[in-house]
Amino acid sequence: MKSKKKHRQLTIFDIINGILLTIFGLIIILPFYNAVMISFMTEAEYVQHKFALFPKEPTLSAYKSIFETGSLRNAYKSTLTIVVVGLIYSMTLTTLGAFVLSREGLWGKKFMLHFVIVPMYFSGGMIPFYLLIKNLNLIDTLWSVILPAGISTFYMLLMRNFFESIPKSLEESAKLDGASEIRLLIHITLPLSMPIIATIVLFTTVELWNEWYRAMLFLNKSSLHPLQLVLKNKLESVNININTQALEGIVVYSEGVKMAQVVVTMVPIMLLYPFLQKYYVKGIMVGAVKG
Questions:
Q1: CATH of the domain at 82
Q2: Are residues 52 and 161 in the same domain?
Q3: 142 burial via Cβ count (<10 Å: 0-12, 13-18, 19+)
Q4: Helix (H, G, I), strand (E, B), or coil: what is residue 251?
Q5: Are 100 and 207 within one domain?
Q6: 146 and 267, same domain (yes or no)
Q7: Do 82 and 178 sit in the same domain of this protein?
């Protein structure tokens, strides 16, 4: 006899939950979708219809306008440098720090743990921070943005907790075969810790991509400004000097350029989410179980 598979029936809770999640998803998606559509609109169409499912006469003039100016190209270069170098630098320090703090029998482990936790709640303040960067001659260099983002105590503690959840029997077996601490990290700990590593890589990448505050403090040269700082300056500008600029006979208007800038800064980092999303729940949950 063939066993009949029982299909789970939809309950009222499932229906209400689906409706609420759909509404919540639309609330999140529609503003971004509207921004994308505005970036393709002409000024005349935007004046008539603030929201449209699709522009009647789509145009790329806003995108041509922002890419023909050198500021955005330089901003992409600065942001990519900050993300790539900063991610390698930050993940190296965070991983090594988490691995050391996860070692059993480490002398002074409790003191070291408190030593790294205290800065989460207390800092020297903005003025000492600025003077430190200035005395290190890092003003107007991308290192002034990259170096302060070297390590996150919160991410390091999450990774430490994940490392401690790895069965000790695996490490003991490797030590019996003569494995050193470095080999334990590279061949056992890191391969088993991909969920938390991928999660922290994504979070760190987003933070570095969105970096603008330290750049505003330490980068006086506009050619070094990252994307988010350029976008911030553009959006705060009351009069954008493009209203009389015509590309292909279409007037480029400020609102379209603003939305185009939002799109070109958001889309690249949004493309990273689908590839690492599956690691979110496992990485965060396992990393936060042990304290």
A1: 1.10.3720.10
A2: no
A3: buried
A4: strand
A5: yes
A6: yes
A7: yes
Q: At what angle do helices 109-117 and 153-164 cross, to 10 degrees?
A: 140
Cβ-proximal residues to 46 (8 Å cutoff; 6+ apart), any chain: 38, 253, 255, 256
pLDDT in tens, 258-268: 788 788 878 87
150 alpha carbon, distance to own chain's centre: 15
Q: What angle do CA 86, 206, 103 make, to 5 degrees?
A: 60
Cα–Cα distance between 233 and 216 in angstroms, integer? 10
Smallest CA-to-CA distance from 230 within 252, 211, 256 is with 211
Q: What is the largest CA-CA distance in the chain?
A: 81
Residues 99-155: tens digit of each pLDDT: 888 888 778 778 888 888 887 787 778 888 899 999 999 999 999 999 998 888 888
- β-bridge mates for residue 247, sequence order: 250
How many Cβ atoms from other residues are within 10 Å of residue 196's Cβ? 27
User: Token pair 């600025």 is at which residue?
Assistant: 130
- For 177, which DSSP code? T
Strand positions, DSSP E, the chain = 246-247, 250-251
